[in-house]
Amino acid sequence: MPAFKNAMEIFKLLPGTNCRKCLVPTCLAFAVSAFKGDSSLRDCPYLDRTLLEQYEAHSPNWMTMEQGYQESLEPLKREVATIDFPSSAERLGASVSGDRLVINLLGRGFQVSPDGSVASACHVHAWVTVPLLNYIISCAGRALSGKWAPFRELRDGVSWGPLFEDQFEIPLKRIADSHTDLFEIMIQIFNGRPEPSPIGADISIALQLLPRLPILICYWKPEDGLESSLKVLVDTTAEENLNIESIFILCVGLMRMFAKIADSHDPTS
Ligand code: SF4
After folding, report:
1. Per the domain annotation, does 2 fall within a domain?
2. CA 28 to ligand 1 centroid distance, Å
3. 48-73 tens-digit pLDDT
């Protein structure tokens, strides 16, 4: 039995009662914590012991998220090596330079070699490489619909929605609450563009994660005793152009980058 590939695989094994016996507020938070290696799966007394032992036999040390992504890179590279770049460029909204494919990810050019290795002027994280290679392999090339939908309304959004909210929308809202320049950073560093909000948000910025994968970050400022709020919408074609796990990975990686940039702008740090 292989090790877990993501926190959702752990979450599906938990009873979902949020009983807190593991000393973590919710089963979802526990799944994320266990996947990162911050909690032991044995801290949940309700997890099937036989199943647990099977996983432990094959995975004595729980993989961190980054390690997990690193391990999935080689098979993805092999698959990319079978793809003809010139005939795939239009499908991907990319261009070809010499023998390399050039794809814009968050406003920056990433070059992919025929062997699947990825290079860029900026640091290339696994959270970028895995979705980028998946995009090259599986993007259907569907033209954007121009219609926005909540992440959880995607085909697999019901199961991934809670994790997306916990790992992306909530932490991003916290950053937006404490760093009012977050949206300026999105515009100036990540080529974000202000857009009219279809759901009446105070601030609404579109980010082009990949050529055929935009997201819309919608933020409501706190007002009259009401808390702020943040929701992320995706183009309704999103899941046809990139699988939902890769969309999730890209968004969480992006949020971590925002957090680092925001920290470096923090006047108290
Ligand atoms: S002990 Fe298990 S069931 Fe209870 S909150 Fe933690 S993970 Fe969920």
Report:
1. no
2. 9
3. 877 777 766 555 444 455 566 677 78
Q: How far is the CA of 89 from the centre of ligand 1 (A)?
A: 46
The reported pTM is: 0.75
Final residue in a domain of this structure, among 138, 160, 188: 138
pLDDT at 97 over 90: yes
Q: How far is CA 50 from CA 1, 34, 46, 61, in A?
A: 12, 18, 11, 18
Domain that holds residue 26: 7-63
Specify the amino acid at residue 136: I
Which residue bears the tokens 């996983």?
55
Could you tell me the distance, in angstroms and rounded to a whole number, from the CA of residue 20 to the centre of ligand 1?
Answer: 5
Q: What is the DSSP letter of 83?
A: S
163 and 233 co-located in one domain: yes
Nearest CA to ligand 1 atom 8: 27
